[in-house]
Amino acid sequence: MVEQRTENPRVGGSIPSLATTSFHLSLYIEQVWGYDWGYLISQTESTPTFAMLTDSEIRKTQPKDGDSKLFDGGGLFLLIRASGQRGWRFKYRVNGHEKLISLGPYPTVSLAKARLKLRRAKALLLDGVDPSLKRKAEKYAGADSFEAVAREWYGSHECRWADSYSDHIIRRLERDIFPWIGKKHIKKISPDEILSSLKRIEARGTRETAHRVYQNICWVFRHAAVTGRVIHDPSAHLKGTLLPTNEKHLASITDPKAFGELLRAIDAYAGSHTVRTALRLAPLVFVRPTELRAAEWPEINFDSQDWHIPAARMKMRVPHIVPLSTQAIALFKDIQPATGDGKYVFPSPRSPTRPLSNVALLAALRRMGYEQGTLTVHGFRTTASTLLNEQGWRPDAIERQLAHGERDHVRAAYNHAEYLSERIEMMQEWADYLDELKAFPS
Length: 442
Known about the structure:
By secondary structure, the protein is of the alpha+beta class. The protein is built from 19 helices and 9 strands.
């Protein structure tokens, strides 16, 4: 190893150090000996070949009419507001999503300290911890408050969920639970306190939401138990205490004659070609509405006649294969000249960089005369499930094609192609059956 001497402007003088000091060593020394020594050791790390910021460069830079940035490398930059305020920011990505976290104001946080904070944040990322979520959890009353534990649980599972699903979970907790029991120590929360929060949700007339929130609370307490925060789960005492949801499947049509009428109405729809094509595909592929609306051209393979939806776009974060019938292929080829140059198969009319909204598809169904409570876009999945089961197809093949949740995510990741040959045959015969319903109303 090569010995070198390193100056520390905060301590003064110099000491021997090693040019090969590891990234985590400076953080460890900081924790044991304090910031000054952590800073000192961190200076031995390899210096990037690109130019980095200097204090003199920062001092010389004046505010501009709008916000401006001075980049230091590794995602660290100094944000300079038009007002003259300056602050450090760290830009990073988690599961493909760009995130931004503040590292403090300048000059209160010097350039050297900002770099040390950057290393701390990167160390968290290496350990699988999102620094932004960790900071949010630490804001609340103690590491063992209900909110802190809930956010920890959420952060450990968020990467496995679709964005829309994870957003619903955290918003429900933030709106309906955290204001009431969020700051309370998780060990001291009683069943009646949980029930009171759930009853407030019921009082709004949203029974289904109350049941979903209750399920989330149960998961949080389960996480608290396996991490040693609680021994007894107070939520377990609440089974059967909420009003029943009178749950119904999302509105659908399962009568073959009525479904044939719907298919003819979609073919005759006089609105947008993009909307009509999406609705014509919906019964053929019976994916979830979000998966259909946000379909991307690189996912469609005309040669192998299938559609590969990546895990990041699926509700349960498991990739999914949709065998495409000749009828589905024809619809994709029909719309390709109109939208094939962009990212999305069904782009929004307002912006080609965004997918079609679910409201557009629902509005089209309403204009066709299908009122609320009679049909939803999601209802095509119920129709396919009901009729395919009635036709005698193997239930496991139907469930796999519907991409219903597999509790074992590792197993699911390997089994997304399960029953594929049977599913290919099923999807083509299903498309032929739909053609018969349209052509021969009974």
